[in-house]
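step=predict obj=D-3-phosphoglycerate dehydrogenase n=390
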Amino acid sequence: MHKILTLNKIASKGLDLFSRDLYEVASEIGHPDAIIVRSQDMHSFEIPETVKAIARAGAGTNNIPVDTCSQRGIVVFNTPGANANSVKELTLTGMFLASRKIFRGMEWVKSLVGRGDEIPALVEKGKKEFTGNEIRGKKLGVIGLGAIGVDVANDAERLGMIVSGYDPFISVEAAWGLSPSIKKAETLEALISESDYISVHIPLNDQTRGILNRERFSRMKRGVKVLNFSRGGLVNNTDMLEAIQAGIVDRYVTDFPDDSLLREENVIAIPHLGASTPEAEENCAVMAARQLITFLETGNILNSVNFPDCSMPLTTGTRIIIGNRNIPNMVGQITTILAEESMNISEMINRHKDGYAYNIIDVESPGTDALLTKLKGIEGVVMARIIDKK
Ligand SMILES: NC(=O)c1ccc[n+]([C@@H]2O[C@H](COP(=O)([O-])OP(=O)(O)OC[C@H]3O[C@@H](n4cnc5c(N)ncnc54)[C@H](O)[C@@H]3O)[C@@H](O)[C@H]2O)c1
Ligand SMILES: O=C(O)CC[C@@H](O)C(=O)O
């Protein structure tokens, strides 16, 4: 029986994939094998020793201590693209909200309640206070062309915007999905200096924290509208408020409000609703659950952020999976131990990503605790597990 701990509310469509004869799933559970989480901050959460994998039902993994997980051999998954459409739709909404004074107009019109037959004339007289601009023909700069950025760029172009993108690490898959008429910006500075709208779609990490700061605001066009549906920490809020006061930023639309932003009327603050649709929540939960089930039952890895994608069909009744630091002579030491234990290898695969490697080894005889202890004893091995399918 595998035990799955849920942090946050996870859509039942995903949790229902864990068959109840093989899995126990609960928000409170002792000795969990895996965790499914959404936005809960796990940096101060004590991850139990028994945890083998954490699945983030969502894109961003900055709420998970990924480096510590890697050192402990815990595989961290996310669900790339599963909520992209929802975030894209809210980003486009944000562009309209930044362009037309929809909320202010709505608030004002409500103040006319009780004015009876005068209302139509008052509306016609008062509406000039709430004019805005079209987005068609305006320049949009998209920072980060991953699942969300590509969708935003393509749909904004369909709406008539002139779109440029900046992403020095764009994946081949994302590049294939991007409309060919979207211009590639060579530098972030070039992108931000020519854009009427700037939308940020990158992960928050040590390299991207505060990427929009005073220096960058000083290069932007006066009246630019900035959208942030990625993470609050990507924007230096003090510098943003200064840029608004200086008339550089006309509107800041953010899914990540804080006290200072809520006090500024040119900030359009949304309570982290980017992925809050049943469609996105279900897609993420289903993808996260499938990835955990596959990993726990077969050892195959798909969509991990800290270990390489690595899959092989089961070829025998016994599979050994081993994660190790990506250092020389690991495979040699592993296969030597298997030979010492007289284990014949049927199939084997080894992949690496950044500082870690992962091995799947199908063997022709059952594994033993002694074998597992030996494998775990190799300097550099961070996890080892035997999966017996007989
Ligand atoms: N508001 C929400 O509810 C919500 C929902 C989903 C995702 N997000 C956030 O949006 C982010 C993007 O999501 P995604 O699904 O598109 O992720 P993704 O991994 O598909 O795309 C991220 C892209 O950013 C690029 N990138 C990384 N560093 C960069 C840099 N310094 N400059 C330019 N590009 C850079 C990567 O190459 C990649 O193409 C997530 O990391 C998450 O923080 C927010
Ligand atoms: O789970 C959520 O509601 C937000 C998820 C979002 O921030 C993400 O990074 O995918």
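step=describe
The first strand starts at residue 2 and ends at 6.
step=end
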